[in-house]
Amino acid sequence: MTKECEYCGQQVRVPNDSVDGWEMCRCAEARQRQRYESLVLEGAELIDEIFAAPEEDCGFAPVSEYGVDMLRGIMREVAQQNVGAVTVGLPDGSKAAMRINGSGELEISRSKRRKIANSTNAH
Ligand SMILES: [Zn+2]
Question: 4 alpha carbon to ligand 1 midpoint, in Å?
Answer without folding.
Answer: 8
